[in-house]
Design goal:
Helix content: 25-40%
Number of helices: 24
CATH topology of the largest domain: Rossmann fold
Number of strands: 31
Bound molecules: adenosine-5'-diphosphate, zinc ion
Length: 743
Amino acid sequence: MSKSSYARVIIDRSIHRELDYLIPEMLAEKLGIGSRVRVPFRERSALATVVAVLEETDAQGIRPIEALVGDKPVLSAKLIELARWMGAYYCCPIEAVMRSLLPQVIRRAEVTWKKQLFVSAAKEIPSDEIDKLRRRAPRQAELLEAVSKLRQPVPAADLLRETSLDNQTLRALEKRGFIVLREEAVARDPHAEDLFIASSDLVLNPEQAAALGAVEEALVAPAKAKPILLHGVTGSGKTEIYLQAIHSTLSRGRTAIVLVPEISLTPQTVERFKSRFAEAQDTVAVLHSHLSEGERHDEWHKIHAGRARIVVGARSAVFAPLENLGLIVVDEEHETSYKQEEAPRYHARDVAVVRAKMEQCVVLLGTATPSLESYHNAIQQKYRLLNLTQRVDNCQMPLMRIVDLRLERRKQKVAAILSEKLRAAITSRLEKHEQTILFLNRRGFSTSLLCSNCGEARDCPNCSVALTFHRGAARLSCHLCGHTAAVPKKCPACSQDALIYSGFGTEKVEANVTQLFPGAVVRRMDADSMSRKDAYRETLHAFRAGKIDILVGTQMIAKGLHFPNVTLVGIINADLALHMPDFRAGERTFQLLTQVAGRAGRGETPGEVFVQTYTPFSPSIQFARHHDFAGYFQQELEFRERCDFPPFKHAVLITVRSAHEARAQFSAETITRRLKEALPAEFILSSPVPAPLEKLQGHFRFHILMRGEAIMRLSRLIRETLDKLPLPEDVVASVDVDPYQLL
Ligand code: ADP
Ligand code: ZN
């Protein structure tokens, strides 16, 4: 009898512990690290992932594994190593990390392949046999004739539909031995309907060629290569470099992942990758949150089985189970949507860099506006910096005009949404049949409803924010928790007819623009107007085709879209992003202005960007105006260093929340006291304070901010401190390492 061995598993439930089980002999051959298993747990059974196979164990009362789920391990040893790193770095239980690593549809293993019945001829069918059959069973003969013409098996359902015949006829032919019916798995391909026309590599300009050369150098010796930061202005041809670098990777027999922000995972993006690698239908798999369970199952297995060699996807595609990984591309690396805002609170760019190191592959971060973190790494020579300074179409950088809203207000007496200058610019675009984009990062019509008599505002009952008035829906709604309320006619507090609407969002901009330019076609693009499935695609299509003159929208239109006929961009209120209680507010404003500006201009005529602001002299606006990246980064880095903020120190934010304010506060104070005892002096610990967003979804929230360089150590000390400290049942403390949400 062979030596019995044990499997150490992580079960899918949060128990903060790994457990050992006996491997039954009959499973010993098939089971390995990364296998999914069913194990007895307490009185029931649970699904789990094997993370180690051991010859011995000290555990008591060992029970055997009940069953193996699926026949191949779902996670490689490298991905399990990555999960361990994430748990330690992000101060997060390993079970939660595992949940992110494997899509639910794979973990549960309930969905399987879609099966379809295929029909083919059992043998050569002479035409006189068909004639004989025709006399006795004309319908069977008709179907048999159709089958006899097939060159390959086809789905039975398709054949029956085309011939208008039924299942009974099909079965009768099978019984007579004329045809063979076979069930086969078919992929639910989200792009099955699309036709991709093969495109080929473009001839690179010298800057692009130099950048690709550097990436190829890294591909030749990936173990020694540093992560690469590709800083290229919008339209400088970064995507073309990704495509050719992937080509190079595949030709070395390796595979590639391309991460893009969810919002830019548009049909156009997918098409660019699918088309370039169109020779083999399966080569490119796509992973994002809009796939159906079945599609996700099929795409994932296509990758797992090694049929797909390129994965294009959003954040969680960084965990794609590719073997032989050669390249990870992170497009728009500065995008904060790479950060997951629930446990595990990981940042996909940073995870990509770590995975690349573990798998000895190349990681390429591309952006027009590097994050301070990545730029700092480049200056420190931890990353290799590559620059693309020219737009491919030789188009000039747009002219940035700053409109001082303070002066405007004095002139117009009232705060108009569009300044005179911006209005004149729109008029001239309409005359020339050129297009305009107006950008405002706030939805709705009015952002607050106040009583001018008693001063009462309509706040969300669950959150400390005002309710936004949506005119289209004729409701008040909270953008944080989704609460909605009817619009009162009179003030509910003092019963006076004195309600006033103030502040404005995209809905009002749209109304205002439509009124000012009655002849123009105006469309709005935000989460409200784009709720229908195809609305996004349709609106973009209409805009591209020139059927829309003015497009009003939120950040949805700020990202990665390129429209050659847009020569004017208006930023309605640049101060919105700038005055958030967040140390990254300046950085975000700079990025936003630069990204939005990248949408304007074509060929010979430079585009124009109007930036409306009450703080025209803030550095992020001034540096963006002059397209001065280096200048901006330098002063922002100095500021961050002075204040001990990232990228000089890591930040960790603990949020303590409870439906009872006093309990949340008390727990926050207790946690802080314990942390003070546990943390050495090198770590900066701030006192607990009410979060800027004091109340969210009915919970009162307190923040504890910590900063330090040795992040692994800090994470461990925080975890140990929290594990030792039982919190009251109705209090929750969550830990966010490298936080991006400071509200
Ligand atoms: P980025 O990703 O930097 O914004 P893209 O890769 O999308 O830029 O390139 C912008 C446009 O220029 C695309 O339409 C692309 O096909 C085109 N393009 C890129 N490189 C070249 C090249 N070397 N020659 C001609 N056209 C190019
Ligand atoms: Zn709310």
